Amino acid sequence: MRHIAIVGSGPAGYYTAEAAQKQWGDNVRVDIFDSQPVPFGLIRTGVAPDHQAIKGVSRRYEATARLGNVRFVGNVMLGRDVSVPELQELYDAVILATGAPHDRKLDLRGDDLANVFGSAAFVGWYNGHPQFAGLDPKLSHDTAVVIGNGNVALDVARILAKSEEEFAESDIVAHALASLRGSAVRRIVILGRRGPHQVAMTPKELSELAKLTRAHPEVDPADLPDVAEDAALETGLRKSMAHLRAFAAGQARPGTDAVTVEFDFFGAPRAILGDTRVEAVEVERTRLENGKAAGTGETYRIPAGLVVACIGYQTSPIPDVPFDEQGGRFANVEGRIAPGLYCVGWARRGPTGTIGTNRPDGFAIVEKIAADMQDGSGKPGRPGFDALAEERGIEVVRFTDWQKIEEAEIANARQGAPREKFVAVEQMIEASHRV
Ligand code: NAP
Question: From the CB of 328, is ligand 1 less than 6 Å away?
Answer without folding.
Answer: no
